[in-house]
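Anyone able to model this chain together with nicotinamide-adenine-dinucleotide?
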Amino acid sequence: MSVSVAPDGTVFSFPTPEEDKIEFDILKRLSEEERKRGRKIVVVQGMGFVGSVMAAVVADAEDRNGEPLYFVHGNDLVSRRSFWKIPVINSGKPPVSADDPEIPKIFPRCVNEKKTLRATWHPGVFTFADIVVVDIQLDAQKPVLGQAEEGYCDLNAFKQGMRTIGKSIKPECLILIETTVPPGTSEKIVKPVLEEEFTKRGVDIDKFPPMIAHSYERVMPGSKYVSSIRDYWRTFSGINEKAADLAEKFLTNVLNTDNFPICRLGHTNASEMAKVLENSYRAANIALMFEWAKFAENIGVNLFDVIKSIKVRKGTHDNMLRPSLGVGGYCLTKDPVLANWAAEALFGLEEKLPLAVNAVNINDLMPMHTLEIIEDACPSLQDKRVAILGVSYLQNVADTRHSPTKLLWENLMEKDAIISVHDPLVKVWTELGDMRIEKDLSKTLNDAEIVVFAVGHKAYKALHPEDVVEMCGRKPLIVDCSNFLTDDQIMKYLEIGCNVIGVGKGHIKQLKEKFKK
Ligand SMILES: NC(=O)c1ccc[n+]([C@@H]2O[C@H](COP(=O)([O-])OP(=O)(O)OC[C@H]3O[C@@H](n4cnc5c(N)ncnc54)[C@H](O)[C@@H]3O)[C@@H](O)[C@H]2O)c1
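re: yes, here you go
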């Protein structure tokens, strides 16, 4: 297939060799012009959820006189999955969607007004870079669901990305790795690949050691998407002092470091570890809460009230997380696995990270609990009409990667349920063969016997129980996976005659008793 299809259905053909040639000439001319204006050239490799917005943040950075500091080339591959992002960005539109009002503004501002951002597929772009920011993906493989301890990291595609950079960058170019990597990657993987490529080109690596730095993103692709990159604390490190100094200068220029000071760590292993530990901590926090959710359900307790009452202990307990349908997204599902794998594969250690990987197992299997409580309430799912509301992995984002809804959907399919799915933000469900997602809620709910509030999107918050029941045309079983319903709403559903169940919401039993009285 030599086309790439954008989420809105627009088809983009891959570039021809002639277009390749023209593109390189454009890159050369633009880079030379921009350098003459005193701007440094930044290439961001990977125009995904992180890289595209980071590229816009860099392109938006200005000096004290309001002059742009950098010209940014966003780079991605000629692939079916990603090529569309390049023409979309170049038309001034964001390649991501989220309910952050900054997202639809920052792309046209940088591409059309400031003219400091342009995307390209051409790998020759690295020739012109003063700074390369690496934001490509690096996956953990988990061959068996629930056995994350068997997970591993295949570094081949990532290494290839580093090789592309090493083949053409200037020897003094800074390479800032933002991809989440197994600890040890900058030193044990990136450095040797770059040194090999430098040596092949006759660059003296004693005189010009590759300038590698590492700084991880804490981006949250929701309502504060842009701000979570620009106005947020950063940790970084360099492979040597010079690389760390260069990274510090760059990060200070592009991020709001006056209000969110950056933190320099002494070794790339340290900042790489910081990222995967940060996410392992969150994964373990959620896994612990899930264990207690089941306990709460069994003894008639509302776990969410319990958590709220504990969170008043600022400084020690205010960051307790919560159970839900499950844990998805790109990071919490893989980062502990990357760390666990690295301990042995990159450092030869026997002692690994069993608590962290067990958290991944618990979280990966969490959607099965929702299936269990549905089956408790409705023993045969065969031919039952189930409406699932929300397919993204998190409320108010359009990202479906590793969405827990997928496991629920698959298992409901296996039980021969008749499923309809709705999501206000997701257009196509890539992980389910580009399935088109229904936008009309009343169509999704029509005739539903079971309604699963899978994701707590804002759009669902405004739904009144009467309206939901009317759209269903019957009194469905209501399943609250995300502490979505207030007790008043639950009482309303009960009053109408619906059954209601929920993850971590053992107190619904008592509400039912109260209602009976
Ligand atoms: N999504 C998040 O919320 C988040 C948060 C923090 C950190 N991260 C980390 O940031 C990294 C990127 O994540 P993402 O969500 O943006 O991934 P993504 O899959 O959305 O984007 C990666 C992009 O890189 C491109 N790419 C892959 N190889 C390439 C190459 N050799 N040259 C050019 N482009 C290439 C892909 O085509 C894709 O467009 C990951 O390591 C992830 O763990 C993600």
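The chain has 19 helices and 19 strands.
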